[in-house]
């Protein structure tokens, strides 16, 4: 749980700072049940968690990756107490794309949300250079053919404000490389700004400033896990 290295914990135990169910334990080989045992270190309770689930409002300029030799990654935004769980981003957002990104070390949930067979909906807010109209809505509703010949699944395009610069929301059911930008390029328009605001049942907490994050609530986690086979 990030309290110390094995060497540091052994030293704490020798000093009598570690107790299990009220009993001072000095033997590092002592067996415990982390789900049931009451563990204290220097008078503070240790709450065991196997998995961690974080909602991040990803800022631009960060890679959706765990490590990179040259660029900043979303894990650089986490405090050490959360980095210790070695979470990974569920899916990816482009470097310059902002918004909702789930970080977890739960591989089963991550696979469920990113599996191409699941078609988990993802909704984006975007600022578009060019007037978005009903013809674009109809084209997206049928799916468009990208520059590499791939025919996208039908998508729902909502026009919030049409003009020289249009504001839209777009829901897609797959995650091809630069998909939203490429879909608009097919229509002769350019994405100026892109932000993911929803993934499946999980909506971005708008109180989170770019770069901020929080743990999911029990209700949010339950909704994400609703249709995962047990």
Write out key terms for the chains shown:
230 residues; alpha+beta; Structural Genomics Hypothetical 15.5 Kd Protein In mrcA-pckA Intergenic Region, Chain A; Alpha-Beta Plaits; 4-stranded antiparallel beta sheet; 6 helices; 13 strands; elongated
Per DSSP E runs of 2 or more residues, the count of β-strands stands at 13
As a percent range, the share of helical residues equals 10-25%
What about the largest sheet?
Answer: 9 strands, mixed
Radius of gyration from the alpha-carbon trace, in angstroms? 22 Å
SSE ordering = HEEEEEHEEHEHEEHEEEH
CATH class of the largest domain: Alpha Beta
Task: Name the CATH homologous superfamily of the largest domain.
Answer: Pseudouridine synthase I, catalytic domain, N-terminal subdomain
Number of helices: 6
What are the low-pLDDT stretches, counting only 5+ consecutive residues below 50? none
Structural class: alpha+beta
Mean pLDDT comes to: 93
Shape: elongated
* Level-2 CATH architecture of the largest domain: 2-Layer Sandwich
Percent range for β-strand residues: 25-35%
What name does the CATH topology of the largest domain carry?
Alpha-Beta Plaits
Number of domain modules = 3
Rounded to the nearest angstrom, the distance between the terminal CA atoms is 26 Å
Quick summary of this structure?
By secondary structure, the protein is of the alpha+beta class. 20% of the residues lie in helices and 27% in strands.
Structural overview:
The structure is a single chain. By secondary structure, the protein is α+β, with helices and mostly antiparallel strands. The protein folds into three domains: 6-45, Roll (Structural Genomics Hypothetical 15.5 Kd Protein In mrcA-pckA Intergenic Region, Chain A); 53-116 and 202-225, Alpha-Beta Plaits (2-Layer Sandwich), CATH 3.30.70; 122-199, Alpha-Beta Plaits (2-Layer Sandwich), CATH 3.30.70. The protein has six helices and 13 strands. It has helices spanning 6-14, 80-83, 107-114, 134-142, 179-186, 218-225; strands at residues 18-20, 23-24, 39-41, 44-45, 53-58, 88-89, 98-104, 122-129, 156-161, 165-172, 190-199, 202-203, 213-215. It comes from Thermanaerosceptrum fracticalcis. Its EC number is 5.4.99.-. It is an enzyme of class 5 (isomerase).
